[in-house]
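Problem 12. The chain below contains 659 residues. Write out its predicted structure in token notation.
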Amino acid sequence: MKEIATILFFVFMLPLGLSAQTPEFFSPYRTTHLRLPSVPLVVNDPYISIWSPYDHLTDGPTVHWTGSSKPLNGLLRVDGTVYRFMGIGDEQIQTALQKSVNVLATNTYYSFDCGPVELDLVFTAPMLIHNLDIMSTPVNYISYQVSSKDKKNHNVQIYLSVSPEVAQNTAEEGMRSRKIVKSGMEVLESGTIDQPILAKRGDGICIDWGYVYLPAVNGKVSLGSATEIRNHFLSNGQLPAGEKEIFSYKDSTLPVMAYVHDFGHVNSPSSSFMMLGYDEIEDIEYMYHRYKGYWARNGETIFEAFKSMENGYSSIMNQCRRMDKTIYDDGLNSGNVQYAEILSGSYRHVMVAHKLFMDKDGHLLFFSKENNSNGCVNTVDLTYPEAPLFLCYNPILEKAMMTSIFEYSKSGRYTKPFAAHDQGTYPIADGQVYGGDMPVEESGNMLILSSMLSQLDGNTHYVDPYWDLLTTWVNYLVENGRDPANQLCTDDFAGHWAHNCNLSVKAIMGIEGYARMAAMKGELTTSEKYDHIAREMSQWWEEHTKDGNHYRLSFDRPNTWSQKYNMIWDKLWTTHLFSKRTMDSEISFYLKHQNKYGLPLDCRKTYTKSDWIMWTAAMSHNRNTFLKFVSPVYKYINETPSRVPISDWHETTDGKMVG
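Solution.
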């Protein structure tokens, strides 16, 4: 199962340089009502990933997407009374009243009542899809604002703490935490003692190399035992001097990294911000070379990154707000409020499931990780369903996912006559590890996406160096795509399935994609040849899959059905390979087979894939029909009892995550 919750975006659509804050930084572009099953807090990549799987930020500890504990805690002291607004606490501390939570593309907004003071808290992951430097920098902002509700003066201090568990995979690992000074900045640092850099690969694991950092920006920091530091804050609103260095060898002795900002006496809104960052030292291995993230490609250190992010705070926050507006408005204009909230809520899910870097040959590479699956890195049938986001907003990143697949085959390391499935197991990308090839699936994916990128570029410059590979792959589809043999496709959790009609559609669209690229290259005879093949195959497809008022799951199995989401490219490209009647009859049939939480993937089970529902929905002939598919997906996200980041594989009957 591909855990990235990719949602279809079929819409084409003043740096300040100071650290000044404006009131709008604490007000969401639009209020949202979608209850995400898990709320993104501090996120940047598959390892830097802290969420709150609760309706209220005080209902329990913050966690990694795997469910592993990654505690962030927050207290607000008002005139000597302390209120807990984040994490778990004890009876002596009052719980702040959470008034609202709003999730936009890059920002999560919380608002609390803490006695006579209101607290606004904003978690910002600056995943700016057009700004690769900022997007890849492993630093998040936490902005905070307090205001007096009764217009009287109140003495206010805010406390936030981070556990070294953020840099730990298991509780048995020894940790070293210390206070250091870099470039005149006091910083708390914590990481494992052993530092097994890139020594682990797999799916449900957390990072145990590199260091988590908490700088004393706009406040003071202290390192020490959780009890001592908290009690000191409870008594006087300040932090103790703390320790310079602590070694801990079991969970019970872990210190906390604490931060305090003293507002002093407040009777009007007062605000500031802090930062939290992580340096993985070496982020990924690709073809036996190790690389840092894109942000550090020129040797920038995490401390320089902190300084840059501090100085650029206002500019970056304004850019994030514009990103929030773009995603929300595009969703609203192409769908409705529910669709806008789905897109806004899922944006960070997609973005932070990747690692951006540049290899030694100057190739920009953007690798995904299969979460809650097998942990494969740069899986082609992940690159395909998440493509709409990148095709719409930054095709360079789509190319950055495909380049390594091309280079892998071009190098001779991968010699099969069809496209590879993956590049390895995250974070080691030295070559395919998945045991079951997906020949038609991945070759079709690469051809379709190559064609779409060429059409967006208006030329074939990107694919020209790989034309021989694309030719090999398209010929494989010609020979094997009409009526696919018993082989895996992207919906591999359902097992092998011969004569797969939807897989055949992908082959047909891949062949047509090649024909369109050939035409752009001026190879008109080649273009006409493959266009003719695609049209002959599509006509044969319609004749052999028709099953009354719909089309089959498998050529040889009457009374079956499945979502034909691969047909969307025929609509987008206006190639008319399939008759309008075919697409319309499928949509009409699907509407009659929806369950409470969406349209099943096919007739075999009641589970579904939310990404494919959105692709299928985009085949609708009007907005109202499209929204009939969107509404059950919104309901699923809003009501699922599975409190994890949005799962793309769920039951349509009870809304539970399947895997």
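Discussion. Residues 130 and 394 are 6 Å apart (CA to CA). Students who got a different answer should revisit the alignment rule from Section 12.3.
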